[in-house]
Amino acid sequence: MKMEAEVYLNNEYVGTVDEPLEFVSRIREERRLGSITSNLNIHYIEKSNEVYIECSKGRARRPLIIVKDGIPLLTEKHIKQLEKNEISWSDLVKQGVIEYLDAMEEESALVAFYENELTPKHTHLEIMPLAILGYCTSLVPYGNFNQSTRLNAGSKNQKQALGFYASNFSVRMDMDVNILHYPQMPVVQTIMHDISGYSKHPAGQNIVVAIMSYKGYNMEDAIILNRGSIERGFGRSTYYRPSIAEELRYAGGLMDEVCIPNKDIKGYKTEKDYRLLEDDGVIFVEAKVKEGDVVIGKTSPPRFLSSMEDYSLASNIRRESSINLQHGEEGVIDFVLLTENEEGNKLFEVRIRDQRIPEVGDKFTSRHGQKGVIGLIVPQNDMPFSASGIVPDLIFSPHGIPSRMTIAHLIEMLAGKTGALAGRYINGTTFDAEPEERLRKELLSLGFNESGVETMYNGETGEEYQAKIFIGNMYYLKLKHMVANKIHSRARGPIQLLTRQPTEGRAKEGGLRLGEMEKDTFVAHGAALLLKERFDSDRTIVPVCEACGIIAIRDEYRNKSYCPICGDNTTVSEIELSYAFKLMLDELKSLGIYPKLELEGKY
């Protein structure tokens, strides 16, 4: 005799049922009829004899067409009604033609990809195979020819591409945005390009790509660019970034003031720094600015009254609080805006623009996760060329293909070539694309080799290459990771208050960390003095009491050192150590642990 099955609702035990399979099928019927909520999913696990019902929030669910006895419930009649707008999607759900399954209920479903694959065992049919992919992933052409990991990478990369993000960008104050100057629609498209209105926000350019090595400059996924292509506008973009200042109100009726600061205020920079400000304290449009230049001049009331003389005379000394360009920034002032915020305070916004022309180190990618940085920019007359005189815009390394298995990358080049020659867009929708065989035949009829390879010539010597080179058209994207935003170096600079070590990060003009592994390379080189120099960024000299081993106190005013425990009648020696170590000793003292430094004589 079969035991009763336990029923769990949202992972809470609610009771048992005698006939679990009948119970599950009945609930599914009721859901399809609309008697109970469509947000419910149910699944019977035979091994453990448990029924799970889920209707909680936050589950990923997807729509599928219900199949009965091998026949889908969605009929031609429904499709005609949808085309005439007589019924909508929600009507199909209400009628029980389409239902939403979550990952749990999908375990007990058998889903067919296409209608011609249906058997009596199938329970559901995909509305369209493309629906298993998300929005960005379905923009990848011929995605079913790629390895799944690369398809995910291709999806992620498209989100980082520069393009035309909003048509009113010129009047918006967005943080950290880029505009591609000549965005294009891809020659090889998918159905999603039309559905999503991709033509309103394109994010890439169609270029000629050759797959070959070039002097080793495209090793490790790097790419070679043709300087002629850059001069004709390939990959050019503009970077926008706003600087913001507001006139804050403080207690006691004091306020910030946007103006050209006077020379008698605290922290006055130099006249050169304020040279670009107009009478109202704000910079003018189209001014060329570099790091350190003030874009909005501002003074603030004193922070706090510290010493005695502040009370009497100079409580009116204001301090300098201007907005200047961060370390490593430069550009042209593009737009100045004067408005007010929610509190009614004056708000000044200044937008800086900077033209970005592709340079060595900028990142590019195809739609297949084949990302790489520019390794070399070659003059056009040194680039290889084909028999018909075509010079590639980009040279891609052949080593990126075998291990990554991005076959769609190769198919897109072939399709792009066919589309460019035939003057039409190619449908590359995943699972429903123009077949490769047809593209090959069309390419052959256009007078090219059907395999996409061509005889190429060395651009420097004019010699014919022995190997045939695979060359075609492709949609390439410029990513937002540009060298200009990332380049960073430093000699001496700001340090942290607590550890006296260099600050962290490019924005704060920080130091570059020499870690354990970098240390090992110096050790292996035998470069001990260089290593010592690298590791003394927080070198400090501290007085130590020789009697008790505690760090002593140096009184510069009285020009003497004394121990906090032993007093004056002891020898105090000065030693050199890392400030971080001194900080650790202080931390130990705060825990009530006595760190004793035993000094040895220097012989």
Largest sheet: 6 strands, mixed, barrel
CATH class of the largest domain: Mainly Beta
* CATH topology category name of the largest domain: Dna-directed Rna Polymerase Ii 140kd Polypeptide, Chain: B, Domain 6
Helix content: 10-25%
Overall geometry? extended
CATH superfamily of the largest domain: DNA-directed RNA polymerase, subunit 2, domain 6
Work out the number of β strands.
Answer: 34
Distance between the termini: 93 Å
The count of domains is 4
Architecture of the largest domain in CATH?
Beta Barrel
Strand content: 25-35%
Q: Tell me the strand order in the biggest sheet.
A: 12-26-13-24-23-30
Radius of gyration: 35 Å
Residue stretches low in confidence (pLDDT < 50, at least 5 long) are: none
Count of alpha and pi helical runs = 14
Task: Please give a quick description of this structure.
The strands form ten sheets. A six-stranded mixed β-barrel has the order 12-26-13-24-23-30.
Secondary structure elements and their pairing?
Blueprint: E1 5-9, E2 12-17, H1 20-33, E3 41-45, E4 50-54, E5 61-68, E6 71-72, H2 76-83, H3 89-94, E7 98-102, H4 103-106, E8 111-112, E9 124-125, H5 148-159, E10 177-180, E11 188-189, H6 191-195, E12 205-211, E13 223-226, H7 227-231, E14 237-246, E15 257-258, E16 288-290, E17 294-296, E18 298-300, H8 308-312, E19 319-320, E20 323-324, E21 330-340, E22 346-356, E23 363-365, E24 371-378, E25 385-386, E26 394-396, H9 407-422, E27 426-427, H10 436-445, E28 453-454, E29 456-457, E30 469-478, H11 483-486, H12 516-525, H13 528-534, E31 539-545, E32 553-555, E33 560-562, E34 572-578, H14 579-590
Parallel strand pairs: 1-4, 8-9, 11-27, 12-26, 13-24
Antiparallel strand pairs: 1-2, 3-4, 5-6, 5-7, 5-9, 10-14, 12-30, 13-26, 14-22, 15-18, 16-21, 17-20, 18-19, 21-22, 23-24, 23-30, 25-29, 28-30, 31-34, 32-33
Helix pairs in contact: 9-10
